[in-house]
Amino acid sequence: MSLRRSQRLKDLKTPKAAIDAKARSETARVSEQRVQGRRRGGLKLKDMFSDMPTDIIHESRLAILTTPADVYLGYFVSSATNLLSLSRISKTFHAFLFKKSSADYWKRALKTIERAPPCPQWLIEPAFIALILFPVCMACGKKRPAPVYWAFLMRICDSCKPRLVIDQYELLDSDRICAIPRTILNLGRVTRYGRAYCLRDEAREAIHAWKTFSKDEDTEALDRYIEEKSERIKELSDFQSLCLVWLENEEALRARERDRLQKERYQFIISKLQALGFEPELQRLQQNRMTVLSNHTLVRVPELLTDRSWRTIQGELVKLMQSLRTSRLAYEAELEKKSKATARKRTLRKRT
Ligand SMILES: [Zn+2]
Q: How far, in Å, is the centroid of ligand 1 from the Cα of 108?
């Protein structure tokens, strides 16, 4: 009996594995399929992980091949990104994670996204997590910058945008529908005060319904339609506002953190350069408000330095400081020369 098989049988005897025996069995089957696939030249292990961030591939392989399902899923739910990646590894994982019984994994994963708004009732957690984290245009499926239009529950890239959405003012102008209640138009924004757009299909349907009820003079049906539509649109609008404020706050937090790291890095570099005897040059930079050091690409990095990482950038910064020293010495020599010349002129004037 192979060591791996022996270990699996041993694992199955433990209470923890017994609780999730079905999932464990499924995982073992998937693991074996993947190994067999590699041996037979079929599906390669690297293909199974093609969508997963490279920094977790190694750990994922070990986790999946050697630990019970409940344990490694515990590892993956510690990061929503990791769980999302796991669900996209294969159809088997996708099917397992999208079962109703797996909902708790997603709920736990969502909690790892700091300060994220609660998942709205009309979305399941995996879809909400994907909307937040998965950088793919939901119209063309391509991995490219695609901002989230929260009111549409979609990420849309710039290429797909003209085809899918229309500026609200352009819509109202083009269809001569000034009287349409704005509350039945779902307006999507990517920033709180940015331009508002409508999904073309959604707007067309709303306009058609409004025109039909208005034409039929069926006031009761029109009122009911407007009320129901407005209620739904308000829910989406409130959800959008919540998400946009959350994103703004997160960006502000990130900006503050970047600023703090840059300042600490800068102070670290200053202390190192002072220790190397460049205090006069540093003072001259400060007095003349020169930014050649503070704006240097190796300095303006939001990442703390250690003594080890300092050694990797030290050479270039010392070179910069030496050039500043050369120009300082030249400047001081010039000053001294001028000073001596002035003193000589004064002496000559006194003698004459
Ligand atoms: Zn697209």
A: 30
